[in-house]
Amino acid sequence: MTDNVVVRPIVQAIALTKQVSTGDAQLTILEDINLEINAGDSVAVVGASGSGKSTLLGLLAGLDIPSAGKVQLGGEDIFLLDEDARAAVRARMLGFVFQSFQLLPALTAMENVMLPLELAGVDTAEAAALEMLDRVGLRHRLKHYPKQLSGGEQQRVAIARAFVTQPQLLLADEPTGNLDSATGAQIIELMFELNRERGTTLILVTHDDAISGRCASRIRLAGGRIAT
After folding, report:
1. What are phi and psi of 68, to 5 degrees?
2. 175-211 burial code (b ≥16 CB/10 A, e <16)
3. What is d(CA 179, CA 202) in angstroms, rounded to the nearest whole number?
4. N or C: the chain end with fewer CB closer than 10 Å?
5. Phi and psi for 154 in degrees, rounded to 5?
6. What is the DSSP string of 129-148?
7. In angstroms, what CA-CA distances link 113 with 93, 121, 159, 220?
8. pLDDT tens across 126-157, in order?
9. CA–CA separation, 146 and 161 (whole Å)
């Protein structure tokens, strides 16, 4: 007799809605979003500008608070937690890659990648950061500051920083938006390689059909809803 194994999605949104006040009116950015994403999946979030893609990513990460609905990460309802507890869940489970890189200008490449490990009290931060920067092809740029790096190199540092904590889930918001097409293609290839190697779940906001086509599935937003 085989035991029944219940597989829980790593990310689940239930009736997720986000509204903001604009003067006397309420603007609905997202409405009644329901989705499930399983561990190891790669998912593209696509849609026209203003369709709510980045807002959805922020809600899934617990960086923004919904007007209604809930988000579960690893089976835990993150909006039942206070801000500090949500931050602890993010530190434990999530990595982020942004269009604008979000590197700290006063820190070297090495220091930027070490930072999340040091904040988590990891003793082997330096060795882990060195290994990750080597993996993304930047062993020769360890002591360079962001302003001394090209856009593609800065995004590689950002990817190294995102993956160095071995997150279960990586959220990427237009990660090639500030890069030329050739460099962007290299960055995407690197992200999918790491996704395969480490089994990290990937949720990727993009307007690029070629990139979204590489993901196992797509979520298309239109007018704040999931388009069928």
Report:
1. -160, 160
2. bbebbeeebbebbbebbbebbeeeebbbbbbbebeeb
3. 20
4. N
5. -60, -40
6. HHHHHHHTT-GGGTT--GGG
7. 16, 14, 9, 32
8. 999 999 999 889 999 999 999 999 999 999 99
9. 13
5: phi then psi, degrees, rounded to nearest 5: -105, 125
**Are 35 and 12 within 8 A, CB to CB?**
yes
Question: For residue 68, what are the β-bridge partners?
Answer: 17
Residues in the chain: 228
Residue written as tokens 């962001």?
Answer: 146
DSSP string, 146-196: GGGS-HHHHHHHHHHHHHTT--SEEEEESTTTTS-HHHHHHHHHHHHHHHH
Give per-residue pLDDT as tens, 60-109.
Answer: 999 999 999 999 998 899 999 999 999 889 888 998 888 888 899 999 99
Taking phi first (over 0 means left), then psi (-120 to 50 degrees means alpha), and beta for anything else, what does residue 21 get? beta
Do 156 and 191 contact (CB within 8 A), yes or no?
no
Token pair listed for 78: 């993150």
Do residues 163 and 170 lie in contact, with contact meaning Cβ atoms separated by under 8 Å?
yes
Structure tokens at 187: 């960055």
Euclidean distance between CA atoms 227 and 154, whole angstroms? 34
Six token digits for residue 147: 């302003």
The tokens 């434990």 sit on which residue?
92
